[in-house]
Amino acid sequence: MLADFHSGMNDAVGHSTPEQLLEEALAAHRRGSIGDAKRLYASVLSMDPTNAAAYGNLAIIAAQQGDLAGAERLFRQEIRLRPDDPAGYNNLGSVLQQQARLADAIVAHRQALKLRPNYAEAFLALGNALKQQGHLEEAMGSYRAAIALKRDYAEAHNNVGVLLQMQGKFDQAATAYGEAVALRPTYAEAQFNFGIVLHQKLAVRRLHMT
Prior knowledge:
By secondary structure, the protein is mostly helical.
């Protein structure tokens, strides 16, 4: 039966258009059938080597599987084919961050924002790269820009809290973490950070009482 199933799928691929195959690939990707999705995206590209979406989605899979060099190559191919797509630049920037290539990542995130100035996710990613470079004031500005665009952005509130905590502003950090947890009660990182900063606040209070 398995042999018959695979034979049937190959026949279907042979009679499908690139657009139909891309829809099948996206459906497989969404349901977590990564192997099927990769094969279908590859089939799309064998029929249409200029399909930017297939390159971009293969890049996402590569990044998720830890193949950062492969993901970078695929995202760059997507951008070459679709140079006006801000998501491609932002995704490339995130992969470059994971490779500790922060200057290149910042360039990519800024290009994403040039193409889409109201791109909250790109502001968050840019803030992360700036923070890693030690540009904390610029990072804070980027996180706050993300929040201004997307008030319920729990990750941005959490990251504002991290910067405030690093500056010893424990009350303000607690407020930021509290906002993140209120927005997403299951946000474990924000919950942990909130607990730590509350202990720090208590320690400072005790120190002032002695």
